[in-house]
């Protein structure tokens, strides 16, 4: 940028020193386009204070050339010719983009800002410097004159740097003695403060190697010398007495405006004056001498004795001057890099007095190491002084109390200095530890302690070592009011506070331990661009008091707060201005936080032309957690457009959103560049925020599309409706008083963080409008727009999430359909699956499906096709809903909150249901292919099977229409074949998981015939039938017909009959068929031949066991059938329709106390099941048989019920359960009679007692048992139990039927059992039941024997034990008479 504009030899060979005013454009070659009357020459207006306030004149450029030929004409090594144009051209400045931040009124561009300071790029820069950004150059900025100076090898350019014009009025001076080589030292220069006769400064330039000095008294007067020869004497001269190889290193102002101090590489110094005693231009130089060293050239003697021995004391790091209160006098201090301080008092004309000469290295180093532990770890030999600054004395008292510095000494012989010192590490990458050290240097201090060390302030924010090849050395500035220090390096500037921090216990503790409390510190970094470099600097400071009347002038730049001004090659002039300097000494001083650093990077780092960079960590002074919290806070502010960087107005909402999206992306790039390791939750929250902003952009474009499609009279899309309907507490209200009247735009600027609320409200808008009786066409339009919103918003959010995982540091996460496959533990609920969103997307899917079903066929050509659009959107919306509910379920299930986890399980069930139900809904709108795709995506194979089957059925239905042409029929047949092939492919791909739902749907929809007749598959059909217990009745048919597996068919039937069948008739048939199939299979020759003897034996045993089980079940069924046929059927046959149960219950009602009605309930329930032909379990059937009282007219048809109950127990129960059931049967038999009456035999003869006993149930029971034993019918030896043996059964615990029943119910049953047991015990104890039982058994067996004897004599035997009970009652009377005659009693 800063480059010399060089001219060819012909142009520079003029002997006259000329100055020409550059024109904006060339003069026309002809007069055709020239005005008729030439305008009068514009009078030049001298610069004044108004120049920097509101310039209106066009920018001008002036070129001043020397009188002798320029050295550019000669061949020079490494220095290129400048453009050949004679005049400097002023180019039109770049058009300012809307995104660039301009300071109101001054045209500057805001490059960075924080709570403490702003960095602005000033607009003024000469066009010459804009054209070349690579040449070697350096310069300075002088706030007192308002001008900047840039020096290259061949030219000096001066311009007012603070003017508002992008191409300011500038002055270019061709140096009379340019450098010969590009590697030569750059010329040195200084601006001479304006004299009383001029409002512009002068310029002095020193060529370092040759010692040539050129002086222009005024940059403005140089342009008025057209066609006039300037006297060379007094404006050019050469420094005499320079040593070979010696060169000038620095030029500083001395005691007056026209005098300077020069330093040389050898350590010498010289006094330079550019005016004589009368104030006329004249250059004179004199080397300074002292009595401390050898004599040499110069007027006052050489001071090389103090400064030339660089190997011992170090080279001169810096030299500065400070004016004193005396006219024509200043204090000059020089500091070597090794820490040696020298102080002189210099008078006008070059007279000087040595004030102090101190080696302060040890004292400074000790102070640095004592205060800062990091310094103590650095090698002492790396100590260097880089620069220093005088601490201003002319301050108000209040400012003296605000900083950490000592009170400035009143004696002018004492020099109050602030040094910039450094220590560097020697291992690895070289880093420096910079420290500001306050030093008081005075002649009055004792020789033992020649200096006083005050404040020691380490710099922790910047540690980059200075570049030895930089075009400018590091500088330290301490502008008034001595609160903020600026450290300027080649690629960075540090802003450091030395304000006095407020008193606190922590600060007091740090002070007691000689530690400095942390105060504000920040760094302004340049981009890593070879063209960018800070080549000059200066300061702007508030005006102070106490300036000498003759020397003081009102400065051109008068800021309220201090600032550093940087001349940056490749960029221009940057101003680092403190916002409020007094705030640094307040109770709440500015503080550098992670958020402020991120803000700078985000809002200013996105600009490509910003010369600043914000990703230099500088030690990363903040923790990962602090950066994470800052990133989240900043992300939220970007979403809501809050903060000083945002406006509440956006002419183009999409542009506003895109800018904010860039800001969010910049947060992550900045976090990555700083190598911050954010926690997983923070990363996801940042990504979700970015998704919301991305979706906002998508929705806004949808809104634009909707309004374009709508008629002019109805431009209010559903997007605007949603914003209007959202409750006030769920959005920020626009402030009408501030002109915020567009509610829609306001929402997209301020409320994007509530995107989940916005999306959920789409369905609510339709619901409210539907209740308001909106016309069908408008409602259809709203439904279509809502479907578009749901699809585009959520799907785009998922796509954005998938694309940006890497950016947000989540590349290791695994997504499925845009959502996390796992790992939700510890994460908040994603916004895309907010319960409101999930619920309303589901409702929208259902509403849209129903709306399409109702209006699809009715849509005419006059309509806009919205119904068809909704139908096309249904598949996408269905997939969106399923993904959302799946994400919600996964998130909630992983929650540590019990309620959320429970809700998550519920959402899982909803997902399982809806991934079938909602996908199948697509078949209703004939979205066949989409439904198949979604079913496969969500692994809903049941839905896949149903959609394929329904599509095939629909095609076959169309094929069955007679009006089809042969081509149409062939096409449909081809589609059917393709779909059937697809089904077969699904069988091969998914196997059982697809086959089972497929057969399930066929069976439920088309029946058993279609299922059994399906020939596309055998393997999975058989598996399906065999694994479905409820289809066992069909499975055995398939086993025989398709599989020819009779053995499995038998097993299926037997398993069904033995374990699962509930209907008694079916059970009887199934068991019989199973037994028959088993017998048929065992008799097959092939099976016998293929089995070994051992296998045959095992199979025979197994068959015998299974046949035995079948026989037992059939026995129980036989008892149940006998009870129903002989006792229940006669009653049912005479009952009215629907009254069967009540009549049966009335006929066989139990006569027991109401307190024990629980037994009646058990009995009635068993009767109900018996009437319904349910297969009763053994315990229920035993209850029924032992509690029922048979009518006299049908009693003999049944046989003894207690013997039947005993048969059920022996055939249906095992082990202890059977024992308990036996005891219950006997107990109920014993308590069936009133033994108190039977025991009273008073006035009864034997025949009467025998007749009474013969009528008891116990007598009948014994007779049947004995007869059964006699005949050998059951081959079972039934036990006879005495009353005392059956007491207590089921009084403490009930049988297995009551295990899962309520406790109260079980207690009632137990109470009834205890009642039965108490009756039994009463009969035993009081009425000799044990003896009566024995007598009854004996009497019954004798009666049976008698009957058998009579029957044998007659030549016939009873057919069954059932016939014994009736006959024995007759025999009991005869037997009683015989015994009475023989005198036997019982």
Please give a structural write-up.
By secondary structure, the protein is α+β, with helices and mostly antiparallel strands. 44% of the residues lie in helices and 14% in strands. The protein contains 43 helices and 34 strands. The protein has a six-stranded mixed β-sheet with strand order 1-2-8-7-6-5, with no helix packed on it. Strand 25 and strand 26 form a beta hairpin. Helix 17 packs parallel to helix 19. The radius of gyration is 56 Å and the shape is elongated. The N terminus and C terminus are likely disordered.
What is the strand and helix layout of this fold?
Elements: H1 9-12, E1 19-21, E2 61-64, E3 109-113, E4 117-122, H2 127-131, E5 138-142, E6 147-151, E7 155-160, E8 170-174, E9 188-192, E10 202-206, E11 212-216, E12 236-238, E13 248-253, E14 259-264, E15 269-275, E16 281-287, H3 304-307, H4 310-313, E17 316-323, E18 329-336, E19 340-347, E20 352-359, H5 361-371, H6 373-376, E21 384-390, H7 397-400, E22 415-424, E23 432-441, E24 451-459, E25 475-477, E26 484-488, E27 492-497, H8 505-512, E28 521-526, E29 533-540, E30 563-569, E31 572-578, H9 594-605, E32 612-613, H10 624-640, H11 653-673, H12 680-709, H13 718-725, H14 743-750, H15 755-771, H16 776-803, E33 815-816, E34 819-820, H17 835-855, H18 866-893, H19 898-924, H20 928-937, H21 941-959, H22 966-990, H23 992-1006, H24 1008-1013, H25 1019-1026, H26 1032-1041, H27 1046-1060, H28 1064-1082, H29 1085-1090, H30 1093-1133, H31 1140-1147, H32 1157-1171, H33 1178-1187, H34 1192-1198, H35 1201-1212, H36 1215-1230, H37 1235-1239, H38 1246-1254, H39 1257-1271, H40 1283-1286, H41 1303-1327, H42 1329-1354, H43 1362-1382
Parallel strand pairs: 2-8
Antiparallel strand pairs: 1-2, 3-4, 4-31, 5-6, 6-7, 7-8, 9-10, 10-11, 11-12, 13-14, 14-15, 15-16, 17-18, 18-19, 19-20, 21-22, 22-23, 23-24, 25-26, 26-27, 27-28, 28-32, 29-30, 30-31, 33-34
Helix pairs in contact: 9-10, 9-11, 10-11, 10-12, 11-12, 12-16, 13-15, 15-16, 15-17, 16-17, 16-18, 17-18, 17-19, 18-19, 19-20, 19-21, 20-21, 21-22, 21-23, 23-25, 26-27, 27-28, 28-30, 30-31, 30-34, 30-35, 31-32, 32-33, 33-35, 33-36, 35-36, 38-43, 39-42, 39-43, 42-43
């Amino acid at each position: 940028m800063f480059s010399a504009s060089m001219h060819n030899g012909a142009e520079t060979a003029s002997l006259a020193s000329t100055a020409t005013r550059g024109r904006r454009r060339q003069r026309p070659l002809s007069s055709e386009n020239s005005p008729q009357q030439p305008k009068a020459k514009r009078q030049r207006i001298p610069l004044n204070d108004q120049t920097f306030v509101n310039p209106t004149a066009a920018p001008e450029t002036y070129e001043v050339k020397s009188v002798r030929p320029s050295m550019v004409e000669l061949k020079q090594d490494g220095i290129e010719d400048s453009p050949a144009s004679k005049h400097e051209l002023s180019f039109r400045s770049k058009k300012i983009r809307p995104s660039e931040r301009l300071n109101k009124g001054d045209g500057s561009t805001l490059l960075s800002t924080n709570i403490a300071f702003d960095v602005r790029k000033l607009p003024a820069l000469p066009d010459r410097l804009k054209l070349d950004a690579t040449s070697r150059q350096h310069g300075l900025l002088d706030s007192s004159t308002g001008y900047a100076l840039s020096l290259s090898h061949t030219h000096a350019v001066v311009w007012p740097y603070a003017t508002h014009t992008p191409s300011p009025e500038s002055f270019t001076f061709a140096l009379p003695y340019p450098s010969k080589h590009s590697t030569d030292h750059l010329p040195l220069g200084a601006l001479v403060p304006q004299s009383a006769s001029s409002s512009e400064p002068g310029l002095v330039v020193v060529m370092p190697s040759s010692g040539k000095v050129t002086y222009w008294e005024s940059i403005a007067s140089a342009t008025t010398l057209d066609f006039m020869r300037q006297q060379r004497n007094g404006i050019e001269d050469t420094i005499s007495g320079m040593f070979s190889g010696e060169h000038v290193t620095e030029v500083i102002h001395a005691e007056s405006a026209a005098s300077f101090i020069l330093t040389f590489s050898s350590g010498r110094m010289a006094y330079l004056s550019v005016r004589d005693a009368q104030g006329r231009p004249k250059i004179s130089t004199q080397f300074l001498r002292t009595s401390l060293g050898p004599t040499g050239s110069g007027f006052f003697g050489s001071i090389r004795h103090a400064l030339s021995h660089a190997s011992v004391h170090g080279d001169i790091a810096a030299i500065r001057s400070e004016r004193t209160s005396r006219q024509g006098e200043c204090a000059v201090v020089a500091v070597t890099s090794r820490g040696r301080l020298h102080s002189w008092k210099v008078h006008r004309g070059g007279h000087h007095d040595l004030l102090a000469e101190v080696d302060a290295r040890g004292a400074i180093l000790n102070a640095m190491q004592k205060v800062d532990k990091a310094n103590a770890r650095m090698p002492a030999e790396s100590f260097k002084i880089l620069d220093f600054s005088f601490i201003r004395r002319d301050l108000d008292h209040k400012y003296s109390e605000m900083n950490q510095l000592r009170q400035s000494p009143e004696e002018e012989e004492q020099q109050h200095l602030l040094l910039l010192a450094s220590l560097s590490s020697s291992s690895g990458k070289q880093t420096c530890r910079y420290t500001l050290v306050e030093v008081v240097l005075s002649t009055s201090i004792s020789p033992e302690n020649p200096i006083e060390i005050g404040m020691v302030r380490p710099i922790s924010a910047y540690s980059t070592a200075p570049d030895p090849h930089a075009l400018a050395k590091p500088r330290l500035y301490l502008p008034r009011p001595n609160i903020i220090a600026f450290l300027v390096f080649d690629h960075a500037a540090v802003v450091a506070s030395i304000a006095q921090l407020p008193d606190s216990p922590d600060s007091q503790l740090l002070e007691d331990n000689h530690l400095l409390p942390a105060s504000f510190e920040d760094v302004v970094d340049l981009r890593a661009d070879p063209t960018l470099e800070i080549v000059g600097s200066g300061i702007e400071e508030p005006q102070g008091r106490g300036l000498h009347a003759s020397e003081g002038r009102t400065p051109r730049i008068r800021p309220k707060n201090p600032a550093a001004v940087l001349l940056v090659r490749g960029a221009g002039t940057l101003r680092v201005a403190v916002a409020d300097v007094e705030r640094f000494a307040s109770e709440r001083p500015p503080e550098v936080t992670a958020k402020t650093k991120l803000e700078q990077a985000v809002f200013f780092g996105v600009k490509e032309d910003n010369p600043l960079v914000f990703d230099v960590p500088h030690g990363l002074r903040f923790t990962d957690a602090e950066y994470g919290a800052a990133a989240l806070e900043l992300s939220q502010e970007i979403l809501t457009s809050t903060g000083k960087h945002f406006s509440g107005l956006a002419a183009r909402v999409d542009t506003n959103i895109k800018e904010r999206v860039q800001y969010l992306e910049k947060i992550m790039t900045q976090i990555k560049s700083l190598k911050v390791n954010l926690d997983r939750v923070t990363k996801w929250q940042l990504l979700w925020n970015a998704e919301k902003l991305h979706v906002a952009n998508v929705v806004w474009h949808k809104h634009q599309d909707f309004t374009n499609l709508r008629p002019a009279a109805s431009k209010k899309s559903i997007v605007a409706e949603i914003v209007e309907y959202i409750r006030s507490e769920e959005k920020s209200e626009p402030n009408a008083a501030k002109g915020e009247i567009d509610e829609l735009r306001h929402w997209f600027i301020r409320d994007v963080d509530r995107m989940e609320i916005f999306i959920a409200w789409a369905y609510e808008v339709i619901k409210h409008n539907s209740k308001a009786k909106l016309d069908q066409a408008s409602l259809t339009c709203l439904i279509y727009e809502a479907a578009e919103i749901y699809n585009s918003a959520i799907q785009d959010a998922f796509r954005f999430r998938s694309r940006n995982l890497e950016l947000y540091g989540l590349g290791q996460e695994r997504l499925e359909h845009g959502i996390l496959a796992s790992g939700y533990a510890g994460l908040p609920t994603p916004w895309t699956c907010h319960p409101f969103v999930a619920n309303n997307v589901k409702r929208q899917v259902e509403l849209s499906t129903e709306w399409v079903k109702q209006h699809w066929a009715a849509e005419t050509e006059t309509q806009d096709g919205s119904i068809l659009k909704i139908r096309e959107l249904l598949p996408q919306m269905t997939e969106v809903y399923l993904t959302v509910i799946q994400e919600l379920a996964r998130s909630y299930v992983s929650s540590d909150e019990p309620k959320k986890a429970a809700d998550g399980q519920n959402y899982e069930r909803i997902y399982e249901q809806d991934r079938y139900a909602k996908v199948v809904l697509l078949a209703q709108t004939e979205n066949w292919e989409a439904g198949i795709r979604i079913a496969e995506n969500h692994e809903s194979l049941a839905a896949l099977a149903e959609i394929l089957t329904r599509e095939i059925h629909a095609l076959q239905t169309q094929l069955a229409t007679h009006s089809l042409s042969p081509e149409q029929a062939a096409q449909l047949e081809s589609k059917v074949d393709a779909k059937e092939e697809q089904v077969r492919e699904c069988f091969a791909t998914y196997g059982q998981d697809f086959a089972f739902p497929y057969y399930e749907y066929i069976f439920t929809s088309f029946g058993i015939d279609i299922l059994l007749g399906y020939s596309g598959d055998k393997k999975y059909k058989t598996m399906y039938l065999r694994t479905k217990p409820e289809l066992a009745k069909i499975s055995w048919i398939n086993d025989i017909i398709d599989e020819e597996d009779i053995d499995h068919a038998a097993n299926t039937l037997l398993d069904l009959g033995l374990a699962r069948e509930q209907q008694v008739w079916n059970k009887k048939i199934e068991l019989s068929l199973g037994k028959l199939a088993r017998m048929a299979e065992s008799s097959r020759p092939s099976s016998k031949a293929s089995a070994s003897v051992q296998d045959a034996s095992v199979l025979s045993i197994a068959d015998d066991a299974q046949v035995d089980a079948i026989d037992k079940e059939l026995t129980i069924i036989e008892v149940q059938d006998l009870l129903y046929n002989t006792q229940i059927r006669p009653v049912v046959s005479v009952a009215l329709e629907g009254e069967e149960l009540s009549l049966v219950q009335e006929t066989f009602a139990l006569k027991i106390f109401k307190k024990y009605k629980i037994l009646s309930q058990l009995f009635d329930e068993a009767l109900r099941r018996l009437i319904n032909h349910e297969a009763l379990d053994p315990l229920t059937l035993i209850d029924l048989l032992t509690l029922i009282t048979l009518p006299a007219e049908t009693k003999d048809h049944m046989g003894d019920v207690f013997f039947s109950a005993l048969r059920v127990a022996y055939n249906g129960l095992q082990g202890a359960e059977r024992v308990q059931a036996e005891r219950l049967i006997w107990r109920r038999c014993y308590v069936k009679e009133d033994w108190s009456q039977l025991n009273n035999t008073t006035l009864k003869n034997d025949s009467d007692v025998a007749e009474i006993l013969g009528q008891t149930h116990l007598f009948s029971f014994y007779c049947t048992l004995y007869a059964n034993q006699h005949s050998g019918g059951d081959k079972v030896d039934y036990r006879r139990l005495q009353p005392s043996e059956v007491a207590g059964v089921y009084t403490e615990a009930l049988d297995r039927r009551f295990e899962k029943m309520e406790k109260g119910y079980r207690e009632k049953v137990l109470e009834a059992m205890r009642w039965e047991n108490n009756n039994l015990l009463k009969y035993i104890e009081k009425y000799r039941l044990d003896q009566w039982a024995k007598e009854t058994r004996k009497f019954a067996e004798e009666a049976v024997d008698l009957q058998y004897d009579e029957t044998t004599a007659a030549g016939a035997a009873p057919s069954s034990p059932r016939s014994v009970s009736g006959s024995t009652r007759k025999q009991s009377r005869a037997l009683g008479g015989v015994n009475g005659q023989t005198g036997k009693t019982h």
